[in-house]
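The following block was generated as part of the benchmark described in Methods. Ligand: (2R)-2,3-dihydroxypropanoic acid.
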Amino acid sequence: MPPALYVARLLPDPVMAVIRERFRLTLPPAADPPSRKTLLEGFREAEAAICTLTEQIDQDVLIAAPRLRVIANYAVGYNNIDVAAAQARGMVVTNTPDVLTEATADLTWALLLAAARRIPDGHELMQQGAWKGWEPTQMLGADVAGQVLGIIGMGRIGRAVARRAAGFNMRVLYYSRAPAPSAPNERWRRVSFEEILAQSDFLSLHVPLTPDTHHLIGAKELRRMRPTAFLINTSRGPVVDEAALVDALREGRLAGAGLDVYEQEPHMHPGLRSLPHVVTLPHLGSATRNTRTRMGLMCIENIVAVLEGRPAPNRVG
Ligand code: DGY
């Protein structure tokens, strides 16, 4: 009999095809997030589970799943899982590093450029048929080329974002616990937290969400940034104090922001609406067909490894 798998959300077709061939689903996956009741039901008989960042996998879920051996998180971040509790019960937790690095770095740059050059405002004007013609002072934006890019968290994604800065002739400052491997030359410089806040024209966040990084950027930090600077966040919403960010933007203490993630997803602070240099996306960092398929296949690979008694290639914790 094929192993029992709970899949919390409907994944791309090529992934679902492999899943249906190799596993027995405990419940049919839905496009929307499962209710708590459905989640507990799905886990009950499962030997393995694939969950996403919208499912909170806590003690209660783990206790409800006596046969569970592996939880494959369909994300690189795994702050939605109580990893210590899972490990204490002998379960393996895995994530999906590497495969989403380039897609997330691309989206970070899309946000940066869109916020700096007011791409959504321009698009909206054209779509409404409201453009009256070229004007010398219309929708003036901020320069990107030659500016200073600050990166907090120089892991895989932070480094991929930094690599792209070479094409824009930007100087890269970064803040991280350790020097970045493969820093190309003097254009990447490791600096203090104070320095990165004070000197970045664009500050991009690439840290995991942990108790240490919760509200890493709050009112105090925003006050240390340049009033001409932009904050870009494609990591996790709670890394930024969203209310403090709204205050800084409204008071002109920060020029703009590009956000893919929010403190209370799917909700966004209403103050982030209709600000000229604020671009907001619905958590699309890894959302390319190829990347989301590779993430799913990676989850399967990890699950199969554990069920066959081999080490999981992407074990966390
Ligand atoms: C991740 O992998 O952590 C992303 O946020 C999911 O798209």
